[in-house]
Structures are given as C-alpha cells and as structure tokens.
Amino acid sequence: MKKNLLPASFLLLFLCAFGRQQHLRRFELNGYAQGTTYTIVYYGADSLISLKQTDSLLQRFDQSVSLYQPNSLISRFNYSAKGIRIDETFRVLINRALQISRMTGGLVDPTVKPLVDAWGFGVMKPTHDPGREEVKNLLQNVGADKISLKKYFLYKSSPGVQLDLNGIAQGYSVDLLASLLEQHHIYNYLIELGGELRVKGHKPGNEPFKIGIEGISDDDLNPAPMRRVIEPGDGAITTSGNYRKHHEAGGKQIAHLMNPLTGYPVQNEMISVTVYARDAITADGYDNGFMAMGLKRTLTFLSKQKKMSAYIVYRRADGVIADTATAFFKGYKKQN
Questions:
Q1: How many Å apart are CA 320 and CA 126, to the nearest integer?
Q2: What is the predicted pLDDT for the residue at 7?
Q3: Residue 37 burial class via C-beta count within 10 angstroms: exposed 0-12, middle 13-18, buried 19 and up
Q4: pLDDT one-digit tens code per residue, 33-71
Q5: Cα–Cα distance for residue pair 190/96, rounded to 1 Å
Q6: CA–centroid distance for 320 within its chain
Q7: Dist CA 101 CA 244 (whole Å)
Q8: Which of 85, 185, 213, 322 has the most crowded Cβ, counting Cβ within 10 A?
Q9: How much helix, strand and coil, in percent to the nearest 5, is found in the chain?
Q10: Are 279 and 96 in contact (CB under 8 A)?
C-alpha cells in the first residue's frame, strides 16, 4: 500500500546474543501485508500474540483503505459520485491527513491520487506523462477543500475527486499493531512494516533497540552501506525518499513524490528524510511533506517542534551529498 512504497529503508539490527531476563522471552512474528513484509519482535512472559491476529488486523485495515482492493472503502469512495459512509480507521486517517495538510501548507494532500496515477505511480500505468493542460485539468480535482467529513460520512465536491492515503496509512497500521501488543500488556517491542517502525521499551538486560539508517552514495542514488545507527527509545521512525521509485521522462528522472500545489513531481535538493515522532501516523504523515518542503523550510518547521525530528540526506549546491540531523533526533550517533 504505502505511498508507492519505498521498500524497507531501514536495516533492523537484531543481535544474536540476548541477555537473559527471568520473566521475559523473545518472540518474533513475520508476515506479508500491504505489498511488503512485516516483522514484530516482542518480549514477554508468554506468546500472547499470534500471526493470525496480526494478519487479521492488517486484512481489516486493507478492507478500509487499500487502493489495491476494488471493494475497499477507499476504492468505493473513489468510484462514488458524492461520497460514502466510512469506518473508524478511515475516519482517523482522513482527519489526520487533513490536519497535516493544513500544517504543511497543502504539500501533503489526501486527494493527490489523480496526479499519482497520471505520472505513472498508481495502480494503473498510463501510456504517457501528462502535459501542461492535462496537469491543469487534474488540479481541478486536487485539494483538501474538495472533501468534507461529517461524522462518518465523507463527502466529495465532484465525482473526479479521488483519495490516496498511502502516504500516511502504513504508519497508522504500525500504530494499530502497537496498540494490539499493548492491549495484551506487551511493552517491549519493535514493529517494522515496509520500513516504517514503532519501538517501545528495550531488550532484556536493559539493552536498547538499535536501528540502522541507509546512507546514500555520492555517485548515484543507490543505497550505500549503512552509515548511521540510532537508539530511538519509545516512538516511531519512518522514511521517505526520491531515490528508490522513479522513471525517466524527457531525459529526466521523475520521482514518485507529487507536489499537490503544482501538479508535478517533487524536484529539489532532498534525497531522503527520516522522521522520528511519538507515533507512526505522525512520522509517516509528515515525511513526504518534508521532502516537498525542501531543506530550508523543513529545518525551519522542525526547529519549532519538540516532539518530532528528522535525519535528512540532501544534495548541496555543489552536487556533494550531505546529511544533517535536527534537534531531538533521538539516539543519533554518527558512524565513521
């Protein structure tokens, strides 16, 4: 599902030797969902969560907001003329997406689907990239003001308005998995789904969870060996980047991230942004927006935040690839 998904942008570091703790045992679940894999590692007195439970949760989630399921609620909304009644999962995602849209000045927009499709990054692949007039026409159906939510009914201003929540949905599914664990009194865990992570507690022996962040080579935009390791503590880590999914048009590489204000793919100095926040719906919701904002605006925005931070890889004006971490980016340790 996820935002024309970046395959896992993080390497999970699971050490083979774990300190023994009398009442905590290590359990691991591995599954497949949303077009990618997921892993849950947790520590508890017993195996309280099964793969059947997590798969069932994620299947219900897809029935609500997966664009790849023709009978999902979001697909039904996109096919509808005026809108439909939605469920709680959909409602939470729409409310959060609209809030983040306001905070980013419209650079995050749940109605971006017509642009995503037109530029070749949707479910169906077009035969050509859109021209100026086509982009102009598409923008008539793009904008957060084109939808409104009244209780559980989601309205659209015209039939052409379509939603794509892939830029925020996967993070929320990670949060729901975390809620499932905590409902069973599991408070030491690491959840990874498609590169989006949620961490709480620690491993036995008070050992923190460690997460490796991919670096970028200076020669091309292929992932280089891991060059950053963080110990984030409790919270969520998500990533967005323009170096994994793209295609060529007019002799240029076109990235999958859209600017909903211009109608064109994002093209700036940003290569990737890794966001830390208290929950994954927030981190996931903002990471694409920061990519579209560019370095200066992102740093200014985050300078005013105490519950969110980022690690950013970008290309300097002289072409050299550099990186930076904002204040409050937890557990950041520069590697040699």
A1: 34
A2: 43
A3: middle
A4: 998 999 999 999 888 899 999 999 999 999 999 999 999
A5: 24
A6: 27
A7: 24
A8: 213
A9: 30, 30, 40
A10: no
Token pair in block for residue 107: 């650079």
**How many angstroms separate the CA atoms of 92 and 108, rounded?**
16
Question: N- to C-terminal Cα distance for the chain?
Answer: 35
Can you tell me the distance from the alpha carbon of 110 to that of 82, in angstroms, rounded to the nearest whole number? Answer: 16
pLDDT per position as a tens digit, 217-270: 555 445 455 567 788 889 999 999 876 554 555 445 567 789 999 999 998 999
Nearest to 173 by CA among 198, 209, 210: 198
CATH 3.10.520.10 fits 2-334, yes or no: yes
Q: What are phi and psi of 332, to 5 degrees?
A: -70, 125
Extract the tokens encoding 268.
């700036």
Give the start-to-end residue ranges of the domains of the chain. Answer: 2-334
At residue 231, φ and ψ (nearest 5 deg) are: -120, 85
Tokens of 60: 């219900």
The Cα 161–Cα 155 span in angstroms is: 10
The answer to whether 208 and 71 are in contact (CB under 8 A) is no
Tell me how crowded residue 301 is: count the other CB atoms within 10 A of its CB.
19
C-alpha to C-alpha distance for 12 and 160, rounded to whole angstroms: 41
